[in-house]
């Protein structure tokens, strides 16, 4: 009996140091409830600070973009007008209307049909790519208009053919953001007059070349047909001053622009 008790006591003494040693090797400190609450509060505060920094950075970037878009100068901000509207600003139109030729007989005018063709270059698109007003407002026309007059009797008759060649810049006042606007125009060129006087069977030709001043106003439109093609048209009243004569053209035109 004593031998059995001694054996049990010796065994319990051997097991006890191993248990103490295992407990001593555990390096994790004991966390008190107050420390756990403090750590949770610090973690939540850090997450809030990080979220605030992200929001502030996003707001700063938005404000910088807005300031760049609304600034009056273009420093550091290049307009992409050519990408928004890639048209070259070139148009060709057929012109038709009433040409009121200053009458040599003392009447107000000799009214005859006038026909012609016009080529338009919106040179503001090439020269002022960063200024929207100048880019959309400036253009120039190269124009030819033809008309003829005939008067007399069976024995004496006169036939006159008039050709006007003009080059004139213009300024367009757009109606808001629409493709329509009012334009004012002034320029110059040459007027070629070919006159044939027939007396009986004989005809005498007289040719003349005079400088001409062109001026006028009208309404111009260029609605888009596609991204790179536009319908162009005008209604206009135009004066053609050649020497002492002042001819008036009232008409319109239509064509395409690209």
What percent of the residues sit in helical stretches (DSSP H or I)? 25-40%
Indicate the low-confidence ranges by residue numbers. Answer: 18-25, 74-78
Overall radius of gyration: 45 Å
**Briefly, what CATH class of the largest domain?**
Mainly Beta
Structural class: alpha+beta
CATH architecture of the largest domain: Beta Barrel
Number of helices: 5
Q: What pattern of helices and strands is seen along the backbone? A: HHHEEHHEEEEEE
- CATH fold topology of the largest domain: Porin
How many individual β-strands? 8
| Neighbour order of strands in the largest sheet | 1-2-3-4-5-6-7-8
Question: How much beta, percentage-wise?
Answer: over 45%
Kindly give the count of domains: 2
Q: Main sheet, how many strands, which sense, barrel?
A: 8 strands, antiparallel, barrel
Kindly state the mean pLDDT as a whole number? 81
The rounded distance between the terminal residues' Cα atoms is 119 Å
Q: Categorize the overall geometry.
A: rod-shaped
Q: Would you write up a description of this structure?
A:
Keywords: Signal. This is Outer membrane beta-barrel domain-containing protein. Residues 36-46 have a biased composition (Basic and acidic residues). Residues 24-52 are annotated as: Disordered. The structure is a single chain. By secondary structure, this protein is of the alpha+beta class. Helices cover 29% and strands 49% of the residues. It folds into two domains: 35-83; 86-257, Porin. The protein contains five helices and eight strands. An eight-stranded antiparallel barrel has the order 1-2-3-4-5-6-7-8. A hairpin with a 5-residue loop joins strand 4 (156-174) and strand 5.
